[in-house]
Amino acid sequence: MITAEELIRILLTGIGATIVMDIGSIIQRAMKMPTLDYAMVGRWVGHLCRGKWAHQNINKAPAIAGESTSGWVIHYLTGVAFAALLVAIDGVEWLFSPTLLPALLVGTITVVVPFLVMQPAMGAGIAASRTPAPWINRLRSVLNHAIFGAGLYLSAVLTIWLWK
What we know:
mainly alpha; 70% helix
């Protein structure tokens, strides 16, 4: 059974890793690189709740009230879920003695979710195959998820430091 402390550490690690990923996106935008608009995630989930899973182009789908807020909430909840996945795979001990490699591996492997679920459902095809520059988009996705993985490690280390 997971303790309250472990649950809080998972939450802080997931939120922190998502913040690190968002800092990476801010840097990419400053370099004029396109990044994901989380409002489109909110739009997709909003339509999903109304029974429509896939879209030709999510940008052209009707807007959903609160899509930006819900998109950001979903983004952070996903980060927490992926932190929990890391703990499920590597064990709760990882929260108290984190190592970089498992965090990077789990963070990077989570790219399968956008590749196989979100991108096809939003009209970009499997692994961004329907985008103008699929390989560039794939590499950006892998990079973002590797940054998230590094964020898992950094956040777990910071949580240990703050917990003292």
